[in-house]
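stage 2 :: seqdesign
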């Protein structure tokens, strides 16, 4: 009996159908990459400002190495009032970059007591590090300029109830 490759399309129509199927698989894979970290838990965080007001942000919690590594990569739309809180096990001088991140972001570096130590703006796709000026435990990324629009400044405090 002669071996026949049943996986290789024989007709032009079958070849076209195989090409369409392959393209659909590629599109599905690309779409799943653009979703970022779809299974992150979310938490409403509160920030007490020096002026006495409380500001709320709905944040995804990135508390594992694999979720911290991916962050907001490939995300094109990050609405005001939302963010991603990166939680680390110990204090360190954190460094973030914008590899594969098309949305402009602002980042707040926060110490173990919840005090905001730094706020920086970051440019899309920038591979340069944005480095905390001291030891911190958390980083909160939001749409660029949101901290200023919300009245949040260095010295304000994130409530650590998560």
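stage 2 :: out
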């Amino acid at each position: 009996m002669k071996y026949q490759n049943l996986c290789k399309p024989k007709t032009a129509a079958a070849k076209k159908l195989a090409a369409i199927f392959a393209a659909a698989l590629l599109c599905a894979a690309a779409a799943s990459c653009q979703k970022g970290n779809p299974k992150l838990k979310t938490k409403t965080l509160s920030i007490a400002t020096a002026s006495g007001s409380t500001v709320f942000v709905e944040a995804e919690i990135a508390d594992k190495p694999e979720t911290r590594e991916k962050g907001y990569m490939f995300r094109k739309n990050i609405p005001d009032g939302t963010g991603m809180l990166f939680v680390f096990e110990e204090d360190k001088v954190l460094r973030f970059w914008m590899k594969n991140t098309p949305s402009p972001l602002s980042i707040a570096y926060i110490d173990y007591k919840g005090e905001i130590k730094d706020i920086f703006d970051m440019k899309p796709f920038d591979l340069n590090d944005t480095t905390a000026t001291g030891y911190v435990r958390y980083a909160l990324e939001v749409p660029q300029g949101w901290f200023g629009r919300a009245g949040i400044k260095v010295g304000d405090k994130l409530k650590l109830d998560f």
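stage 3 :: structure notes
- Confidence is low (pLDDT under 50) at residues 1-7, 17-36.
- Strands lie at 42-48, 54-62, 82-92, 95-96, 105-110, 116-122, 130-131, 136-143, 157-158.
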